[in-house]
Amino acid sequence: MTRTPQNRLFGRIDGDIAGILILAALLVIVLPLGLDIFRLNMVGKYLTYAFVALGLVLCWGSAGILSLGQGIFFGIGGYCMAMFLKLEASSPEATKIQSTPGIPDFMDWNQLKALPWFWEPFHSLTFATVAVVAVPALLAFIVGLAMFKRRVGGVYFAIITQAFAAILTILIVGQQGYTGGINGITDLRTLKGWDIRTDEAKLVLYFVNAALLIGCILLCLYVRRSKLGRILVALRDKEDRVRFSGYDVANFKIFVFCFAAALSAVGGAMFTLQVGFMSPSFVGIVPSIEMVIYCAVGGRLSLLGAVYGTLLVNWAKTMLSESFPELWLFAMGALFIGVVMVFPNGLAGLYQQFIAPRLGRLLPRTASGAGTPIIPPHTAAD
Amino acid sequence: MFEGYSLAELGSIFAMQGFAGLILFSVFVLMALGLAIIFGQMGVINMAHGEFMILGAYVTYLCSNFISSTVPALFPAYFFIAMALAFLASGALGMLVEWGMIRFLYRRPLDTLLATWGLSLILQQIFRSVFGAREVGVVLPDWLMGSVAVTDTIEVPINGLFVMGLTIAITIVIYAVMFRSRWGQGVRAVMQNRVMAGAVGINTEKVDRYTFGLGCGIAGVAGSAFTMIGSTGPTSGQLYIVDTFLVVVFGGAQSLIGTIASAFTISQAQSTLEFFLSGSTAKVLTLLTVVVILMLRPQGLFVLKVRR
């Protein structure tokens, strides 16, 4: 069977869109029907990490920039949302037993007498929602500007983002009166008077989360299909050649880093809403690296793979920690080593190698080559 | 932040904090030396370096228990035996890891980072299963206890002095091995031009394996020294890994002198600030300063000029 390039192009679009539809059906129909609300809420929590993994697919998979600090952005997004919810939960009536009513309880415990200035704007939901995306993107812009303009990349970038994750964690834990310290911001109750702790609210939030995720996947797909996406791949494979062709490489890197940061932050905000608290244990070095493994397991080049990878790793983590807690770190360690040494393309790579060819025979054209090129050995990471 | 202290008191504070910083400096240098060899010379990011250090610490702990229960007469000297064993244990494990894992990843530095992070998780869990989650400490022999009073207000602990002496000795040995021995010449040749080094008859695979082993072995010795100033737990190593990487990068990855200078700057800054501010603020300020300087000067303090 001969196919024109035109045909192949449509075939690819169909493949990706079909994959997204299958995922959407799974998230919106199969899982809500098959799981009770407790497990569904848990899946919702896992899906918030998938936002981070999506960002990493663009940032690491497409553009070759490995950030070990995505937890920073996830955390800031989550904290922005948590600050708004906490202020709503700390109305003067609800906190009248405190020595200073109207401020969050942990501030009262730390002898603060008034709300700190940077908490003030978070009385407004509009401000908080904007801040969820804007603050992380701004931070990523500053870091990216400083590093990429000076052509810092690769390993150095990874180490410095990791240092930032460490700094932010120490800062949050140390400034207990302003941030809630090691416990984080807990006891969040309502969103504009709507109780987020009830089962119905959890169900609604799950669907909002799933819809947002599908939206973000489409957005990422759009970015990858655009000329911009092609330039990102080009600068991953041969940065100098892109630079000599007249592109300002740094600007593209800054953009993709900010984009990934904003995606992570959306995930963080949804996490706070669904789980009902935010703490520094989602910000630091360890969670940040774990988020990289979600992406790596799914396949660092595949958007859908990242979502499945996140679900799979987190599901395994919950199962193993429930029954064999001591095995979990072994499994996680083996996963890191295995994903690097044995299957660098993750689930998506396995799918393409073993399942896609057979599917292709069954359904010619629609499922052929469902999207992502195999990673070329050696060039992807250096 | 200086109000309320007289000049003499300030002098003593700086001296005491400076000394406390010197102990931190020793641990940083010992850890960073191994890391600088592995990262600077081989381009491998070893995130499990902290666990190699903790392995050394546990070996020291076992050794101290074993000697005090079987041959108490040797106890005053156990530390030297423990150090040698720690070096061998960590070095051997390092060579094993190089053979089983790292050698396949030399051209993919970011992937070594992820793989060695996985290794560090596994090692941590092994430590936890074998030694328990609680931190353990070693009993120091009598001659390492106590302190020397330099003036009325300045006291210097003996174990700190010993660790520092040890650090200096090890640094000199490393320098001699890397820059004055035939083997070190081979390592530097491989680092500068792998293909050419192979062409003139250097066994580059062997050099890689021993270099990695040496770096990990030094981490083991660092772990030995670490037991004298802190207690050892399964995750103690992870606390130091980011700091140590910053030390190496800040110093300029391929320069041993740079590593020492940056370890000195970072540890002294942190320890002096710690007295006047809270511990966490001191740490945040130090790390932030280092990161900002690195953004302005990405190549680090000292740069080795190599034609590539």
Give a concise summary.
Chain A has 382 residues and is an all-alpha fold. Chain A has helices at 5-34, 37-62, 70-89, 105-109, 125-148, 154-174, 176-179, 199-225, 227-237, 239-244, 249-275, 285-298, 303-323, 325-341, 346-362, and strands at residues 190-191, 194-195.
Please specify the SSE layout and strand pairing:
The complex is a heterodimer of chains A (382) and B (308).
Chain A: H1 5-34, H2 37-62, H3 70-89, H4 105-109, H5 125-148, H6 154-174, H7 176-179, E1 190-191, E2 194-195, H8 199-225, H9 227-237, H10 239-244, H11 249-275, H12 285-298, H13 303-323, H14 325-341, H15 346-362
Antiparallel strand pairs in A: 1-2
Helix pairs in contact in A: 1-8, 2-8, 2-11, 2-12, 2-13, 3-5, 3-11, 5-11, 8-9, 8-11, 9-11, 12-13, 12-15, 13-14
Chain B: H1 7-42, H2 49-70, H3 78-100, H4 109-131, E1 147-149, E2 155-157, H5 158-180, H6 182-192, H7 194-199, H8 204-229, H9 236-251, H10 256-276, H11 279-296
Helix pairs in contact in B: 1-5, 1-8, 1-9, 1-10, 2-3, 2-4, 2-8, 2-9, 3-8, 5-6, 6-8, 9-10, 9-11, 10-11
Polypeptide structure, described:
The complex is a heterodimer of chains A (382) and B (308). The radius of gyration of chain A is 22 Å and the shape is globular. Chain A has helices at 5-34, 37-62, 70-89, 105-109, 125-148, 154-174, 176-179, 199-225, 227-237, 239-244, 249-275, 285-298, 303-323, 325-341, 346-362; strands spanning 190-191, 194-195. The two termini of chain A are 38 Å apart. Chain A has one domain (5-362). With 382 residues, chain A is mainly alpha-helical. Chain B has one domain (10-291). Chain B has helices at 7-42, 49-70, 78-100, 109-131, 158-180, 182-192, 194-199, 204-229, 236-251, 256-276, 279-296, and strands at residues 147-149, 155-157. A two-stranded antiparallel ribbon of chain B has the order 1-2. In chain B, α1 (7-42) runs antiparallel to α10 (256-276). The longest helix of chain B is centred in the first third of the chain and has 36 residues, at 7-42. Chain A binds chain B through residues 66, 68, 146-147, 150-152, 154-156, 158-160, 162-164, 166-167, 170-171, 173-175, 285-286, 289, 292-293, 296, 326, 329-330, 332-341, 344, 378, 380-382, and chain B through 43, 45, 101, 104-105, 107-111, 113-115, 117-122, 124-125, 128-129, 238, 242, 245-246, 249, 278-281, 283-284, 287-288, 290-291, 294-296, 298.
